[in-house]
Amino acid sequence: MNKHASIAAALALCAIGRPLRAQEAPPSAVFASTDTLAQRVDRLESQVESLQRDLGAAPRKPTGGDLKLQFKGLIQTDGRFYLGSGANPAASGFWLRRARPELKGTMFGFYDFKFQPDFGENTAVIDDAYFDVRPWSFANLRIGKFKPPLGLERLRAARDLTFMERGLTADLMPSRDTGVEFRGGVFGGAIKYQTSLTNGTADAAHAPDGPATNAKELAARVFVQPFKNFGRRALENLGVGVAGSYAGSNPGIPVFRTATGQDQFMSYRSNVAFDGEQSHLIPQASYYLGPLGAYAEYAQTSQTALAGGARARLTNRAWQAAAFWVVAGGTASYKGVSPNRPFDPEAGTWGAWELAARFHQLWIDPRTFPVFADPTVSASRATAYTLALNWYLNDFVRLAADYEQTWFEGGGGAGNRPIERVLGTRAQLAF
Q1: This prediction's pTM
Q2: What is the DSSP letter of 183?
Q3: What φ, ψ does residue 372 adopt, rounded to 5°?
Q4: What does the pLDDT read at residue 9?
Q5: Tens of pLDDT along 359-399?
Q6: 3-state SS class at 410
Q7: What is d(CA 140, CA 239) in angstroms, rounded to the nearest whole number?
Q8: Which fold is adopted by the domain 67-430?
Q9: CA 420 to each of CA 20, 28, 217, 358: distance values in angstroms, whole numbers, following the listed order
């Protein structure tokens, strides 16, 4: 007997075993409904078998319809207030520091792309425009405009920075460049590497989207977290790395600015040109444990300068060390702070609070003066400390206040440039 007949017989027995009421259907209707019920059982069994096949089958290959899009954005409105006798009152005020819409996406499972312009400070530039091919975790390709793989703090996203501005080491490395990058990680991400071939651009400057010379810049970075996969919580977020680059020629003119104040304190003479080889060397380290974090890096750049008949290879150096403590409501990490409980006065939760301190310094090669730069106008050294207070209301909103004091050597006529004292504030929306 097939299953349809069994179901029909069971229903018929139920009907025979009791008197037929007026409102009940006659036996013919019972058999008709039995056919309908059997059809439903067939459909359900077919669906179950289909689900079982899907669960046991290999992952479906991506098709042309596999496209995931993300729209993100960053708005940073800053205040800079210069204090003390060396201040320039006209420079105090408010800035739209960054206004960055961001479009990200993934196509066909392992093709990523990112497009990010910036409209802050009355400019319109393309910060990032690249796509990634990432078939494996250990070998991926990036093509377009991106950050060259050099500085630890430079590679950190602007929305995640501990301080309002990057330290003086950022003056000695490029911001963005155009080219290709090969990147990946091995041993569960304990060792990460990046190597790039780009057009080459000036330190601390926004690169043009095309080449200035036929020479190209080759950069490489290796960052190691030796205890990442050993289950030792106290050491798993300890990381050390080194980065460097070499270019056969780079005509770009470097820019030297203070950090929080963003005031240029050193410039080359107008007849100076750069030619010949350029190199970078940047060792770096970071450590995070619960609410505590710290990082440090050293940056050195060497480049050949020309002025009339004079020629010299100039080596500039900088370093910084920073420490921070999330005093309440979150943990420290390279990706920034995410509050455990967002700000909500009615619930009695106040987000996360962070205290931070940094010491940083930059030296200009003494051979720069007086041939390549005027010592009465440009400082040969800048030394600064920064204190910061950050309030993370939630994952999207952050309020910050930084105080920075910078001392200079030279650059003030017959003496030193006046000390720069600046109070910075920031309201950030990152979504």
Answers
A1: 0.82
A2: E
A3: -100, -15
A4: 46
A5: 999 999 999 999 999 999 999 999 999 999 999 999 999 99
A6: strand
A7: 22
A8: Porin (2.40.160)
A9: 100, 98, 35, 16
